[in-house]
Amino acid sequence: xxxxxxxxxxxxxxxxxxxxxxxxxxxxxxxxxxxxxxxxxxxxxxxxxxxxxxxxxxxxxxxxxxxxxxxxxxxxxxxxxxxxxxxxxxxxxxxxxxxxxxxxxxxxxxxxxxxxxxxxxxxxxxxxxxxxxxxxxxxxxxxxxxxxxxxxxxxxxxxxxxxxxxxxxxxxxxxxxxxxxxxxxxxxxxxxxxxxxxxxxxxxxxxxxxxxxxxxxxxxxxxxxxxxxxxxxxxxxxxxxxxxxxxxxxxxxxxxxxxxxxxxxxxxxxxxxxxxxxxxxxxxxxxxxxxxxxxxxxxxxxxxxxxxxxxxxxxxxxxxxxxxxxxxxxxxxxxxxxxxxxxxxxxxxxxxxxxxxxxxxxxxxxxxxxxxxxxxxxxxxxxxxxxxxxxxxxxxxxxxxxxxxxxxxxxxxx
Length: 414
Ligand code: ADP
Ligand code: ASP
Ligand code: MG
What we know:
This protein is of the alpha/beta class. The chain contains twelve helices and 20 strands. It is globular, with a radius of gyration of 23 Å.
């Protein structure tokens, strides 16, 4: 008998039929003698719909009230799933985040889980009930409802699995595992049997939204075995999905595990900055003070002694960053600000890169052969990222995917 935490995402609970299918899967697990805690997301599209209602009233919604609103999506699905389970004769009970004491900090809309009191969950499990918990939400120390940021139900599931010392945390979604890249962009993408926490963290940080970054961080920190699987498979089908775990000795060391991309970034350049000590701080200080996170940064001194200073920010912060830079440009006596939000970042990720030179030049050659101009480059031990024009996203991802031999192996019959 095992204790399993299962999470079902928005598409997996997107209709009454899907919810009933999920209930069947859970019932089958229970019938094998396992104890199951289930975390669910809101029905697909619901969080966006609620967001639109809020912004129709307040373009920048009040963050406390936004959390009260957004958390309702998950409250609908826990109740419906508990009903579907009971209809199938499975004892079940639904709980909101607050009811199972998922305590977070007070950072509305992007709260972090600080503790979970598992007493109520344990009591229900001891009473042989399936426990259905609302993902994405918690309460702060004053009892205010908080939410964990988009994709946050993944983190609820991993945190519950850590708190309950579950045998495994299973993330059921609309794909049957983690692929070498998003299969929606490259249909030849291949499912990975295993990937390390480190690689998955890079993939998630660099834009692969199959798992929320914090969920991967949490799983790595508390060593929670994490598996991504499909919720659409028939109940009887045994799936292995993708296991995310620490690097094992027997693990094949792929050079490149995957390709991630991020369509949410925008690029800003302050041109003709006088080259003297402190300019980087004079530019990025006000940007940081405006609470804008900066990702990639490039600075290069030109022959005339002035420099161009380029960096990327999230597209949501693009307008605000531009306004901040207009002022900075005046203060510094720089020439002008240029801005471009039609860019994307494409990244190669793989722990095998550590011991191999030449991956970067191979990457640049593949992109050059497709006539793709690279606007920015950044590297770390296990990743190389480039910024290119948005129109090259699909071409770039597919060319790199095939150039590094990541496709599915095709069996040729004679
Ligand atoms: P859920 O609603 O179940 O949380 P998400 O939409 O958050 O599902 O995550 C699943 C989606 O992640 C897939 O449909 C896929 O398009 C996308 N995705 C991005 N990168 C990858 C990848 N490397 N492997 C698998 N899926 C990926
Ligand atoms: N419903 C939330 C979202 O759409 C949380 C989640 O699905 O994980 O982001
Ligand atoms: Mg998700």
